[in-house]
Please model this.
Amino acid sequence: MDMSQYRGLFISESREHLRAIGELIVVLESEAVDRETIDSLFRSAHSLKGMASSMGYGRIATLAHKMEDFMDRFRRGGEVFTAGAADLLLEGADLIEAMIQDVEQGLSGEREIDGLLERLAGYSAASPSEPVVLADDGGRLGTIELTHPMNTVTESGVKVEGPKGGGESQQTVRVKTEVLDHLINLTGELITTKHRLLTIGKDVGLASFGDAITELSRLLRELHNEVVLVRMLPFSAVSDRFPRMVRDLARKGGKDAVFEIVGKEIELDRGILEELADPLIHILRNAVDHGLESEKERLASGKPLQGKITLSVSREKDLVVVTVEDDGRGMDPARLIATAVAKGVIGPEEGRLMSPREAFLLTCIPGFSTAGEVTDVSGRGVGMDAVRSTVQTLGGSMAIESEKGCGSRIILKLPLTIAIINVLLVTAGPLTVAVPVSAVMRTLEIRRDMIEVCDNQTLFYLDEEPLPLLSLEETFGFRSTSRSANTIPLFVSEVKGRKVGVTVDRFLGQQEVFVKPLGSPLDKLKGLTGGAVLGDGQIVFILDIANLF
Model:
């Protein structure tokens, strides 16, 4: 029987089981062993073995079978689950992943596994005198619970699961991600066409035409919400790999760390999740390498030997807030400023006036690093610059909080979706441009006499806080006309962790737009995040305020 037609399904399902195996191993190593966790781990290995065997991948099935036997030793409660046992199982999972990758590329998938099989068979716990005590569940195997089964990411696409038969069972449909991308593009084009019809409707002036457009707007809003809902994936789609990564980095650095994820069920747009994975890896690597102290340092400072890193996700209105927090050494703003001055990144006077919040964001400057040595984990002054750039490109913001000796907290605020967004349309000279509403903290008009010049910096006071004043017209190379007017329209945004006022010629109002990526060479221009077509056919650029100035 030709099984090649099932190869794609085997690859995606196997990787789901491997992700579960990696996550459960880290849980077993860091928490008290319980029967349900052991059973879940055992079932994943058993399922992997069965699928590989049915597909004729003998070496994968053999290794999965030996891993299953190895887990059974702890399942029976006769041995201690140690870090050494975790290392062997994780090595086995990595080897199976490599063989699955070979299968995906059309290779045989027959790698050398005999050495690992011998180590699995010959393993003995370092401290066998204290057997693992599993919770008594009456001999019942743990059940698999599907939590919020709306959609989960797979290698071949998105697996959409929904209620069937009154919610008593589940129905699964696999949809290629390309189809979902095309669907959101069509929805965006429909929204653009709606605005075009609205423009035509103003010229026609028919009440019935206006009523039809109103109904069309309502239906498009519902369609957009449903399409976005399908594209939404739980944060666990990217976070499931992190416990294993943190565990390996901590062991490599000779540190003991516990890693906790809170809110992994919170959903984000697939496009944002894909872009967010690498920034979070940078942040977590820095938290392990720079944030957490060695056991000797923690003991000297009176801290628990085991460091703690927490990755939490929450909803805040129409934003998702992602926070990475550690209880490590924290950062010293005075040292950051001194390093920046010594490297010529900032001037002495600028350093003297810098707030702690601004000092922490110095770590996001390319090439800036206070690491005593460069390791293969971090210390080259890259990473955090890429983090901030990616977050700002997504229309989000980043803040850093830290206290010396107590740890650091990095906060990312991101929109729920990036394909269809609300923008504020403004004019700057002859140009009409769009500013994402998520980047606008406030709009207002100020009198000419409210502007002051201090140390060659134009500023104004907002609620007794001095804010630098930047001109959008001058940034684009136009002569500012608003400065000669009695009142000046501006919006308040955030640039490099500091509030600023950005002057414009006029506000044209808010509008929902479909964001289109820029092609070459426009994609090389700094400060532009995409383009959009308005109802009258006018093309506008969408600004990336944080990178524009």
User: Anything to note?
Assistant: Residues 147-234 form one domain.
